[in-house]
Amino acid sequence: MFVLRNAWAALMRHKLRSLLTLLIALVAAFGTLFGWSVQQANVTATTTDREALAPAAIVRMKADQQSKYNGADPTWAKNYLSTETYNNYYTVATENSIQLANINASSSFPVRQTKDSIQAIAGTADQDASKTGGELTLKSFTSVETARDNDLGRYSVVEGKHLSYSGSAPKGALISKALADANKLKVGDEFTIASPADASKTTTLTVRGIYEYVDATAPTGHGSDAKLSKDNRDNAIYIAYATMYDLGWGNESASDWSKPNLSYVFEFSSMADYEKFASKVASKIDKKYELSSPTITAYEKKTAPLTALDARMGVGVVAVPAVSGVLLLALVLLAVVHRREELGFALASGVTRGRMAWQFMLETFLPVVLGFAIGLLAAGFGSGPLGSALAGGYATPVTGALVWRSVWVSLGALIVLMIVAGLRAVFFRTPTLFAARDGWTVTSDDAAVAHDTEDTGSAADDNDVQEAKA
């Protein structure tokens, strides 16, 4: 009790230093555990979780080739891939025993607007439909999964229903909210479009649903900046693949806009299968095209904020405990190094070195352990929400292993600091308490004079005694 009472009294005499020690310990514990949680989450995201993906693979035109696109030149359609080409890609998978989970497809071509029916949102430099194939784009999907990989952007149906891929709504179509508002169309209304090659060939579709794009920003050239109305993604009409097939407007052997732009999606069961396919099929892909995976692209986009946060935290995970350790050590030394008189008088009064060492160690233990405890608790409960806020919603949970790792590191740092404090009492030299001080110095000459004075005084006293005896 004596040791604890004295330690507490010493802490209360220096409240600011004690509070500063606690705060530094808190920051060290919180910063280190939070940094480790971010590192662990990023490692998991870029290794274990990424390897668990079941990627979809798509062969699409390279950006430099796409930049040459001319929507008013019908011969551009010659760049489209054919069913035969995709069959060659499929052969690569079968010949190399690569398991495919599924194969889906999408197809698109321009279609004409019709008089007194749906009218497209105008482009910035529209041309006649005889050159462009039409003012709208008709695009079909074989499944909802393929629709999610839409190159114009992922969309969400905000009114009505999604497409029916089973054939229960053979004339059902999705139109954008912008297009619906411009034409005052609602779910259940009908509209008419015409073939890209022959304006006399028309078909009537029914608005099954109205969609909006999830991403506010459209790909370059496919938003309000589109030169041709058919390239504005808000002018895209989405239908089921069977509906497109039944129209009979597409012709793969055509040399005009009626040649469909096919896109097959190869879906794999594992990342390993995708990577094997990518390496084997590379030699068969035309130099104007490249293989990519919307699944991996979307996943990397999702984890990009986490990876960026981990990069920023990389230095902090090292710097925070290092700087905090140096500051704590400095505060501990400051607390014990100038207490020579207290130590000396305590030892002279019979207090043992062990008791004084324990007192100094307790003075270190109390604020540091409290700071570590608060910091670890705060990080344990706060790392998840904080990491999610800083990493774009990606979770950065604190696992039990990280907590125990932090506890052991904190305990090790605490023991080192306590030992440093205790050594001050253990190695204190008692004679230093009585070392000469300023103004108290006694020279050798002063000592001789004092000695002579003492001798003279003794002789005088003896004479007085002899006189008294006479």
From TrEMBL:
For this record, the Gene Ontology CC terms, alphabetical, are: plasma membrane
Q: What is this protein called?
A: ABC transporter permease
Q: Which residues form the signal peptide?
A: none
Q: What are the GO MF terms of this UniProt record?
A: transmembrane transporter activity
Give the transmembrane ranges: 313-337, 358-382, 402-427
- InterPro entries in the record: ABC3_permease_C, Macrolide_Exporter_MacB
Q: Which Pfam families match?
A: FtsX
Keyword terms, alphabetized: Cell membrane, Membrane, Transmembrane, Transmembrane helix
Q: Where is the ABC3 transporter permease C-terminal domain?
A: 320-423
Q: How does it sit in the membrane?
A: Multi-pass membrane protein
The UniProt entry, under PANTHER family, shows: ABC TRANSPORTER PERMEASE PROTEIN, MEMBRANE COMPONENT OF TRANSPORTER-RELATED
Subcellular compartments: Cell membrane
